[in-house]
Amino acid sequence: MAKSLIGIEILGNDVCFTQIIDGKPNIAYERLPENLIVDNKFRGVETLSTTLAEIKKKYRFVGKDCAVVLPESSTFFRTVNMPAISAEQMKLNLRYEFRDYVGSEAAEYNYDYAVQKTEVNDAGRPITLTIAAGAGRKSTMDEYDEVLKRAGMRLKAALPREMTLINILNAKQKSGTPFIKDEKENRFRALIDICVDHTRIYIFQGNEIVANKMIEIGLSNVDRAIAAALNVDQYLAALYRDTNYENVLDLKNCHDVYAAIGLEIMKVTNFFSYENNESVFEDVYFSGAGASIAPLIDEILSGVRFEKHDARELLPESCASDPLAARCALAIGLII
Predict the structure, then answer these.
(1) How many CA atoms lie within 13 A of 278 on its CB side?
(2) Strand 65-69 with 6-11, pairing
(3) Top-level CATH class of 182-311?
């Protein structure tokens, strides 16, 4: 049996596990016990490790090797145009590309990159590279390494969220149904990833992320609205939100949060369209835990009026039929 990496994404009290073996996907989602993750910091490491080991066993994930999506609080991402240089020179140069972000802490980060585009001269020799570059805090990777080791697993790769999306877009471009003439048509698309602590909008052309923006409103705001309306704690409110217990997603308090998210997304898309007034920009994909909240999606679309797509349309066909695929899309991006 061919084995592949186990992809893991931990967001708040949510965790996604993904794996593809012999072309068949295994995708699982579970809620973690309360307060194991606080402000993207691991608390109760032993309990967290035991819980992850139990999830792995429960859903029959195979092997030990894992890849993780790093929290945005510990990463930086840039798209950079550089002269065509050797891989060794590129590695040495990367930390300087992030000097305005990491400052005096440059040695506290690991750096990596992926080539997105190569421009060649008339003789066919590379002259310019467009690269997707990432920086990840070493201490965060060490924390994941320790937790996974205690869970009987082994950390093999750790990627910023943007890099997992690029993996998805690269796989889409290489598939039998890639985006058609994106660059010639100057056509842009957006992915809106609705997470627990925030909402992130990524704008991309073909397989290149050209802009992204984090909105400091997410599903935790919905949870607080439910908690206030029903006089329950926020952890229980998140369960109500996830199951739409007694139609809590239709509460006015929740719609106020939806409207706030929709307004911020409209600001981002309007600004991008203004700055790129010759662009074709009319498709939006939804991923993350909020992708299945219909009134939230409707509120967003009422402001941007783009054509709605499920993030599963970006994923390999083998994964697209799984109802959890949109929720765990970026974890899938770790392993394709």
Answers:
(1) 4
(2) parallel
(3) alpha beta
